[in-house]
Design brief:
The protein has 414 residues and is an alpha/beta fold. The protein is built from 15 helices and 15 strands. α2 (39-51) packs antiparallel against α10 (283-299), α3 (62-81) packs across α10 (283-299) and α11 runs parallel beside α14. It binds pyridoxal-5'-phosphate (PLP).
Length: 414
């Protein structure tokens, strides 16, 4: 089946036309780490720097106004992309990690106290664990983990009602796990959080590239995403926050452009979102991320999900027939969001990735920044193939062929 999207990407176009000096023939199965970027994103960024490059939000001349317009237009695209109620609910950050740190430093440290609890899941990325460990260290609050079923990755209703209690002040959960690929029941978690007066934070790093996000439907108080995971540039991300919450929070970083008025001794803050965007902003990157979001909308999330499922099913069906391969998490392709994590008996995941790299296949191996999950599942490391709409069935078949030979290459007879 021909993949009509690959020509939109310089990376794949070069490979497919066999004129890639560096990546000739490479099969890229590491989108969960970072996606490839279409021409459209690169063009939008170079257009911004060629035609509107001035420091946004401060100059009074027309070039600076153009830069401001491009930057604020990007904010409006992000707001629409996740169905925020108002553009001012979108804060540009560097990535999901910075978005979560912003909430931890600004909301967490200032609102929690000893005896309070922060509830996260056992499958969180380190970005959604360590900031909360820090808040607990500063405030005396306790970190509580929602555990999942070790086979399926599912978090049960009983677990939710056992762990989210009157002591809970923050619930923060990954939407789609970067290891298990599972989609967590965010609406249930939001309801449980709000029923006890807690706020709900969603780590959308892996969900936002794969399906349509509606922060109002999820009833999330905060939602974090990274541009580079959804075909945008590295170094730009966004944090959605409900306006009344953002207005009640102190700034995270302090400096230029986030102020209303400064005296020798003190300062007052700009309105949201600018209160949270100190210093010169990454306008070119914001423009690039907005172009990526428009591109994904044009591809269509129904198409992306359909393609995810076709590829994931082909991949997992093939892997099921290779002896010694074990999935980490569910063996149901419809529960994986294109993320297939696995081990092979007797072959270290780092060796799996290195051997596949020699065959020009790029996958991720290691702890995937989710060490508490690995400890819970009692595995030291795992390998991960992650797919997107630009991957093909032919690539899956090559991957399966190489995978079936890995044990032999490692010295085993069967
Ligand atoms: N959360 C999840 C689920 C992730 O998969 C990642 C990155 O892989 C992150 C957070 C952190 O994203 P970033 O490195 O873009 O901040």
């Amino acid at each position: 089946m021909e993949n009509k999207y690959r020509k939109d990407f310089p990376f794949f176009k070069a490979i497919d036309e066999n004129n890639s000096k560096h990546n000739n023939g490479l099969i890229y199965f590491d989108t969960a780490a970072t996606a490839q970027r279409p021409y459209l994103v690169l063009d939008a960024m170079s257009h911004f720097y060629a035609t509107a490059n001035a420091n946004p939000l401060r100059g009074l001349y027309s070039l600076s106004e153009r830069a401001t317009f491009a930057y604020e237009d990007a904010r409006s695209t992000v707001a629409k992309f996740i169905n925020a109620n108002d553009n001012s609910e979108i804060i540009f950050t560097r990535n999901t990690t910075e978005s979560l740190n912003l909430i931890a430093y600004s909301y967490g440290v200032n609102n929690l106290k000893e005896g309070d609890e922060i509830c996260i899941s056992i499958m969180e990325h380190h970005s959604n664990i360590i900031p909360w460990q820090m808040v607990c260290g500063f405030t005396g609050a306790k970190l509580v983990y929602l555990e999942c079923d070790k086979q399926t990755g599912e978090i049960s209703d009983e677990e939710i009602s056992k762990k989210i209690t009157k002591k809970t002040k923050i619930v923060s959960c990954v939407h789609v796990s970067n290891v298990l690929g599972i989609t967590n029941p965010i609406k249930k978690l939001s309801k449980a959080a709000h029923d006890v007066g807690a706020i709900m934070i969603v780590d959308g790093a892996q969900s936002s590239p794969h399906f349509k996000i509606d922060v109002q439907d999820l009833d999330a108080d905060f939602f974090a995403l990274s541009g580079h995971k959804l075909c945008g540039p590295m170094g730009i991300g966004a944090l959605y926050g409900k306006k009344e919450l953002l207005e009640s929070m102190p700034p995270f970083l302090r400096g230029g452009e986030m102020i209303e008025y400064v005296t020798r001794e003190t300062a007052t803050w700009a309105e949201v979102p600018h209160k949270f965007e100190a210093g010169t902003v990454s306008a070119g990157d914001a423009v690039g991320m907005a172009a990526a979001m428009r591109y994904l909308n044009n591809v269509g999330f129904d198409k992306i999900q359909e393609h995810d499922l076709i590829l994931t099913k082909r991949l997992m069906d093939g892997m099921k027939s290779i002896p010694h391969v074990k999935f980490v998490g569910s063996d149901d392709p419809s529960k994986r969001c294109g993320i297939v994590t696995f081990t092979i008996d007797g072959v270290h995941p780092h060796d799996i990735a290195s051997l596949l790299s020699e065959e020009k296949i790029a996958i991720r191996a290691g702890h995937h920044c989710a060490q508490p999950l690995q400890q819970y599942l009692q595995i030291n490391a795992s390998a991960r193939a992650s797919l997107y709409f630009y991957n093909t069935e032919a690539e899956i078949d090559i991957f399966l062929d190489k995978l079936s030979q890995l044990r032999k290459w490692s010295g085993y007879k069967d």
